Amino acid sequence: MPNEKLPPHDVDAEEAVLGSLLIDGTAIYKVEGLLIKENRDFYREQNHLIYVACVELYHRNEAINQITVAQELARQNKLEESGGAAYLSHLIANCPTSLDIEYYARVVFRLGVMRRLIGAAEQIKGIGFQAEPDVDKSLDRAEDILYGLRHKQMGRDFVSIRQLLDSYFETAAPGLEEEHAGGIPHLYSGFAGLDEFLGGFQRADFVVLAGRPSMGKTSLALSIARNAAVNQNACVAMFSVEMSKESLVMRLLASEAEIDLRRVRFGHHTDEEEKRVMDSIGVLSEAPLYIDDSPVLRIAEMRSKCRRLHSEHEINLIVIDHLGLMQADTRMENRVQEVSYISRSLKALARELEVPLIAVSQLSRASEWRATHKPQLSDLRDSGSIEQDADVVLFIYRDEYYYKPEEWLQQHPGESYPEGLADIIVAKQRNGPTGEVKLRFRRNLTKFENIAEEPSVL
Hints:
With 458 residues, the protein is of the alpha/beta class. It has helices at 11-23, 45-59, 66-75, 84-93, 101-130, 135-151, 161-170, 192-198, 217-231, 245-257, 261-266, 271-285, 299-313, 335-353, 385-389, 405-411; strands at residues 159-160, 186-187, 201-202, 206-211, 236-240, 289-292, 317-321, 357-362, 392-397, 421-429, 435-442, 447-450, 456-457.
């Protein structure tokens, strides 16, 4: 039909994005998290093909420029279909600078969403024409289409703890009424014995924090993130795949205010506790701690988010909870290969940004069947490459998890029951000794604390 209205699009904006990438390939980290290749935000097929080629190069950590993009398109047998070398030259000639790439990317993204909205409307119209007898089922199908459209767009991104705590006033506690110092050479955990043992977390170190379920892995990782952000004013990027950002903030608030987590979650405070909550919110709100709770986290997506936050605030620490729930960018033959890829990629990211990266990891059940349940390096789950790639491996172990008081007294006569004591086992340290450090674990606060004991060197 000659008068048929075309779907919304802006070819000039699409060409500006692609031209910017060909001029400055490093600019892709500014847009890759927004223009997700699977969403097909580019209206023109040839533009989509070129963008996909750029993303593929980015995922392989290869340079992006006119030559490499042409080679990638040729490898995919898409060079002619995408307009050939002449069209790539045209894109560069018509884009004098890459400085405005984010603006043009938002235009391309917005119009892509509008086209998908039109497609969703067509699907919903089809449901209406089917006129099924079950009205609720039809409405559910229509809602699923719109829900899917909203949630397949740009993934979740970092949210500052200030924003999360602001929402606390509106929900959990309705009655309660950034720039950081750069150039931090050593990032400290805030636990004296552990910091003395490690000398702090070094730049570019890949640190694995592992333990069996319920040992307190997330609590310790969160405590380290809090201590770095509050005590050193360090910019911390925390990825939580397993737990929502709201739950993490409740844990932080309970720990900071030293109030039982359940009371904080439900807002059951005494007047004195309410004051402590308010004071804690004031402390945490000033911390440069950024939390991303995307339920599906792929390496490429995480790398893009870190690069973007690093360019804006200069990250000093990355924390991931946890490694076992992350996904590789491409399908692997088995989980062992996938975990090996993830481990290598995390190590590469730590080195690229020159910041310590702490990844929480699960341990296998092997320790459950040994006479001594203390974990060993061989217990690291799914891949031996985790041990190989890691600069530091820390295990959390608590005797009280395995022994009831009466069992402990039978097997360890004369020794007091280790209630609330946790062993932090330095099982590997590339540039230092191995050994153990004891911390106190207050379960009701999900909080680790220093105790007055010297670390033991193995």
